[in-house]
Amino acid sequence: MTWSKVLTYNESLHLARCLASLREVATGILVVDSFSTDDTMEIAGAHDARVVQRAWVNYATQFNWALTQVDAETDWVLRLDADDYLTPDLIAEIRARLPTLGPEVDGVHCGRRMTFLRQPIRHGGLFPVRVLRLFRYGRGECEHRWMDEHIKVAGSTVEFAGELIDDNLQSLTWWTEKHNRYASREAVDLLNLEYGFMPHDTVASLRGGQQAGVKRWLKERVYTRLPGGLRAFAYFFYRYVIRLGFLDGQAGAAFHVLQGFWYRYLVDAKVAEVKRAMRERGWDVRTAIGEVLGIRL
């Protein structure tokens, strides 16, 4: 039995496409909604999804709570975001290979490709990324982080060749507003690395060669030790020049500049703003995060 979990808030633009792609691989679909005000609930019901509602704190909290709502007889859990959908190749691979996996396998990695402004992103050293989206029920959970969360499992994993597509259809204004909020959350995680005000949960590891673990290790052990601001430019230069991001054309240029530089610089600027408030007002880090970023820990 495979259950898919989708977290939603005002996802009427994407949800039908997402749920339709799950029809052939999911025994059941659980939609955990954060009190949407559009047609999200109706769309989920029309696709025979089970819908529950819960107030949003962060992705990790919402996802791990959703695990408690899944049928206890579930074998596998498939994580999918509302703006994702499975390709036919991945659907066929899940149907053919998942039942053959031995009990020692706890998770499945697949490829994820992204589009931006309706154009596929093919360069920059990022795509396709390998993501763990399928895991055995009871053997995996989401990292307890405010941003950039991954699924972690204790046992072995296997690789599927099929891919899912991350294709958000919203406007650029919506995207920048969302990433402004994301920057605040990522600033919390960076500040926690320095001040240790909450438990540090991470998949960072060089062992096993898993892409998510290696990237997180480089981010936490190398990137975060570089000067703020400068590291954002260095990361953009690596993506856009060294890893040929410029070949992605006009839409790709916007993506690499905004996601690879502007967003990273914004995170650093928010970290600096919190630290300045701590110095000037005498606040502890938790208070400064609440007052400056509006995030209550």
List the helices and strands and how they pair.
Blueprint lengths: L1 E7 L6 H7 L6 E6 L6 H7 L3 E4 L5 H9 L8 E4 L4 E3 L1 H10 L7 E12 L2 E2 L8 E8 L3 E3 L8 E3 L2 E11 L5 H24 L15 H11 L8 H13 L6 H33 L3 H9 L4
Parallel strand pairs: 1-2, 1-4, 2-3, 6-11
Antiparallel strand pairs: 4-8, 5-11, 6-7, 6-8, 9-10
Helix pairs in contact: 5-8, 7-8, 8-9
Report what the structure shows:
The chain is of the alpha/beta class and 297 residues long. It has two domains: 2-166, Spore Coat Polysaccharide Biosynthesis Protein SpsA, Chain A; 172-293, no CATH class. 41% of the residues lie in helices and 21% in strands. Strands 1, 2, 3, 4, 5, 6, 7, 8 and 11 form a nine-stranded mixed beta sheet that branches. The longest helix is centred in the C-terminal third of the chain and has 33 residues, at 249-281. The model has no long low-confidence stretch (mean pLDDT 94).
Percentage of residues in helical conformation: 40-55%
Could you say what the CATH topology of the largest domain is called? Answer: Spore Coat Polysaccharide Biosynthesis Protein SpsA, Chain A
User: Which CATH architecture of the largest domain is right?
Assistant: Alpha-Beta Complex
CATH homology superfamily of the largest domain: Spore Coat Polysaccharide Biosynthesis Protein SpsA, Chain A
Radius of gyration: 19 Å
Low-confidence stretches: none
Top-tier CATH class of the largest domain:
Alpha Beta
- Approximate strand percentage: 15-25%
For the residues shown, what is the average pLDDT? 94
**Main sheet, how many strands, which sense, barrel?**
9 strands, mixed
Q: What general form does the structure show? A: globular
Structural class: alpha/beta
Give the beta-strand count. Answer: 11
Domain Glycosyltransferase 2-like: 7-103
Protein name: SPBc2 prophage-derived glycosyltransferase SunS
Family: Belongs to the glycosyltransferase 2 family. WaaE/KdtX subfamily.
GO molecular function: glycosyltransferase activity
